[in-house]
Design goal:
By secondary structure, this protein is α/β, with parallel strands linked by helices. The chain is 29% helix and 19% strand.
Length: 327
């Protein structure tokens, strides 16, 4: 694979900070698009010259989830079996099986989804964060026409959830964040209401915006016990909570069990937006090319490979949606 562009994702930051215990050294970068350069023996689904977006869930088609017709939950996803190495032969662990902060990388054919040509810095973002957020609303949350949706946390994933809710016809989309500029960006992507949680109670404000009832679907894009509880109590009876923000192992939750029972509904978590890359990426690229999905808004800056460290700083501070490395 010739990598054309690769986004700088929180998961790369987590690898860098030691939060992922795969074997060091890592080759980071996993949100990428580019062109197939050459293929190995037995590869049939892509050929040299294909423009592809990489994904980190190449479904196996064989495991118990796949066999039950739920490949988005595949328990045995494919990665390339041959490892890339440093010049001295040291094996590298590619982030999420991809490793795309490099001119070229080696992946499994199932990790490549052919899409129509489009700006790789923009559509490559479908390979991780944008798909995770958009899919949390569209696939996991099942947001549909006329629904009310609240999204807690308006970084890249939360904003993508807002964009997804708009795409599927939600009529009320409530963005919740602590920062005014993030709420403004959320509005530009389709939020119809905003809640500044530094000044008002998020649960109360979401209820007020939904006739006193709560939203049909509430998405926690932060992934902390406090925000999950807000999501839980800000949803309507029998509504759906989707957890897409990633908690740390130390976080715990204590709540009255009767509240889970009496409020009914669905409590879900969303990995990679429950996406199927071969189904979702081409469709979303089509919508982008038609001007119906403003993916370009997620590209805050375009940088070179030497600027990744500074991009991690900005990501850590929350001052960018996405820095994208162009190669
Ligand atoms: Zn499987
Ligand atoms: Zn990622």
């Amino acid at each position: 694979m010739d990598i054309a562009a690769c986004g700088v994702c929180h998961t790369d930051l987590t690898y860098r900070e030691g939060g992922i215990t795969d074997e060091f050294p890592f080759l980071l970068g996993h949100e990428a698009a580019g062109t197939v350069e050459s293929v190995g023996e037995g590869v049939s689904t892509v050929q040299p010259g294909d423009f592809v977006i990489l994904n980190w869930r190449a479904v196996c088609g064989q495991c118990r989830a796949c066999r039950r017709g739920r490949p988005q939950y595949c328990f045995d996803t494919h990665n390339a079996t041959q490892k890339m190495t440093l010049e001295d032969g040291t094996e590298l662990t590619p982030a999420l099986g991809i490793g795309a902060f490099a001119d070229k990388t080696l992946v499994h054919e199932g990790q490549c989804t052919i899409v129509d040509e489009a700006d790789p810095a923009v559509v490559g973002l479908l390979g991780c964060g944008v798909m995770a957020g958009l899919g949390a609303a569209v696939n996991t949350g099942g947001v549909g026409r006329g629904d009310s949706v609240a999204v807690i946390g308006c970084g890249g994933v939360g904003d993508a959830a807002i964009m997804g809710a708009r795409l599927t016809g939600a009529t009320k989309i409530i963005a919740v964040d602590l920062e005014a500029d993030k709420l403004a960006a959320a509005t530009a992507l389709g939020a119809t209401h905003t809640v500044d949680a530094s000044r008002e109670d998020a649960v109360e404000a979401i209820r007020q915006a939904t006739g006193g009832f709560g939203a049909d679907v509430v998405i926690d894009a932060v992934g902390r016990p406090e925000t999950w509880k807000q999501a839980f109590y800000a949803r309507d009876l029998a509504g759906t909570v989707v957890l897409v923000g990633v908690p740390t192992p130390a976080m715990t939750l204590e709540m009255p069990l009767v509240d889970f029972f009496s409020r009914g509904g669905a409590l879900k978590s969303s990995w990679y937006g429950d996406c199927l890359p071969d189904r979702d990426f081409p469709m979303l690229v089509d919508l982008y090319r038609q001007g119906r999905l403003p993916l370009e808004r997620f590209v805050t800056e375009r940088v070179g490979l030497g600027d990744v460290e500074e991009s991690f700083e900005r990501l850590h501070r929350g001052s960018v949606l996405r820095s994208v490395v162009e190669l």
